[in-house]
Amino acid sequence: MTCRRYVIACEVDDYVAKFAQNCFAISPHGQKITVEVAPALETMKKLADTGISFDLVFIDADKKEYIEYFKLLLDSSLLAPKGFICVDNTLLQGEPYLPENQRSANGEAINQFNRFVAEDDRVEQVLIPMRDGVTIIKRK
Ligand SMILES: C[S@@+](CC[C@H](N)C(=O)[O-])C[C@H]1O[C@@H](n2cnc3c(N)ncnc32)[C@H](O)[C@@H]1O
Hints:
Layout: E1 7-11, H1 14-25, E2 33-37, H2 40-50, E3 54-59, H3 66-75, E4 79-88, H4 105-118, E5 123-128, E6 134-139
Parallel strand pairs: 1-2, 3-4
Antiparallel strand pairs: 4-6, 5-6
Helix pairs in contact: 2-3
């Protein structure tokens, strides 16, 4: 098996993608980073279809799609055995802990995501209460 060290970034906004690519172009390690401009789920499905696996995935895009990102990573070989997922904003200003009728749409999405991960036996996870919350998930 070939093991290569690189990063594929998913970005839906063309302006943001170009800005990042310009920064990577002048970085000594920039050539290891590719930016795919499309909704993250679309890019992830294409990558999954190629059979590629990643040791580390960082999730920080559309909160309402977090469960779909997680399912795709675990249901395919996109996340390698014993691979890690780091998920940003899993405390979302404490909203998941508010009564249901006081949560925003993103607060409710994060609440459902946190429960979904906690109930999935394929993973171990820890939610680190740092700033807006980061969850580290390991595929068993
Ligand atoms: C909070 S920022 C990410 C910041 C970055 N992770 C960092 O730490 O610097 C969220 C980014 O995700 C992008 N984004 C939002 N929804 C997306 C989606 N469905 N697919 C891909 N990118 C998305 C936004 O355009 C924005 O640039």
